[in-house]
Amino acid sequence: MKTPILCLLLLFPILGIAQDQYSITGKVEQLKDGSKLFLVYNSDGVSYVDSTETKAGHFAFKGRLSYPVYSALYLNKNPYATKLQPREKLDYFRFYLEAAEIAVNAKDSLKNIVLSGSKLNLENEEFQRMKKGVDEKFDALNKEFSKLPIEQQKDSVLFAQFVTREKLLMDENYSLHLRFAQEHPDSYLSVIGLSFVASQEKFATAVESAFDGLSQRLKDSPQGRIIPLQLASLSKTKIGELAPDLTLKSPDGKTIKISDFFGKYLLIDFWASWCGPCRTENPNLVEAYKKFQDAGLEILGISLDDAARKEAWIKAITEDRLLWPQVSDLGGWDSVAAKLYGINSIPANFLLGPDGKIIARNLRGEDLQNKLKTIFTAQATQ
To answer: How far apart are CA 69 and CA 80, in angstroms?
Structure first.
């Protein structure tokens, strides 16, 4: 399995704080004079890029942030603006950018940077150590799947077994986020982690308890205020409930609402251009759409691409021959739609009946085909 069975939320949206200044001072000794560095991050659905050139290995960035963000330093090329060549390797370093005086240093390469001056990144290092064991289990599971012959990878029973094992590992991952939040009630990573777990019904009580233990400043932050809404969404997206309505825009700017499709069977499909498992599942959706569209099926694709990947999203729609309506707010994992529907792994979907009520969730492969066949066969005999 060269890519995970699900694309999981790894770069979590960061809570809002008062706008303040950040500074980055760096030295990578072996960089040539004039080497170009790009600082790239997304905030509120907007992609930001700053650049500078090195002198004697030194470089610096300054700016202001409304809230901490996950960011990256790239050497000589911004991959979001310039396509990499086949087998081209990019030197880069990922970290949390926050309002602090951050120092980054390395002898030879950005990937070997040692960072200091940032409390948030120290906390993240602690958390990465906490979940190292689970990450290794995920890697082992993916390698095990990838070694299977293609015929076995396509076997629905075997694939379902791997999905079950992956979900068990996700439960371990969720538990670690809860533990970190309980041990760090004033850490930004705690409110980020709780937001990640809040869409999981089995952990709802634990999330609510951990949230109650957070400092008031975290509870009052924009991300903190979202967590109670996420917990409430658990009851709103259960089977039998009326699907929450939502208005988003298509690539050409057309406004589309979920309720526009009431009266038909609607599959709300959450995906992204960068999500390998989503792209693998797309041919199954194309097959279902062609087979059942005339019988009354519609699909609405909701992309979790961010602003930097808008062109990639549009290209993927064409490449995968997705003929149904597509929308996004280009917020990535911080998408309003993802929050409203409690999405933290993709592909994910909700099947609605003509009355707008949810009748099934997360149907993939043969499960989707069989469910639709049952629905429309029964409808044809009425």
So the answer is: 17
C-alpha triplet 233, 7, 346: angle, nearest 5° = 40
3-state SS of 324-345? CCEEECCEHHHCHHHHHHCCCE
DSSP state of 32: P
User: 55: phi > 0 → left, psi -120 to 50 → alpha, else beta; which?
Assistant: beta
Give pTM, 2 decimals.
0.67
282 backbone dihedrals φ, ψ, rounded to 5° = -55, -40
Nearest residue to 72 via CA among 35, 123, 37 = 37
* Arithmetic mean of pLDDT, 55-72: 91
**Alpha helices for the chain (secondary structure H):** 119-130, 132-146, 150-153, 156-183, 188-197, 204-212, 216-219, 222-236, 276-292, 310-319, 336-341, 365-381
pLDDT at 79: 85
What dihedral do alpha carbons 332, 336, 341, 345 form, nearest 10°?
A: 10
User: What region does 86 belong to: left with phi over 0, alpha with psi -120 to 50, or beta?
Assistant: beta
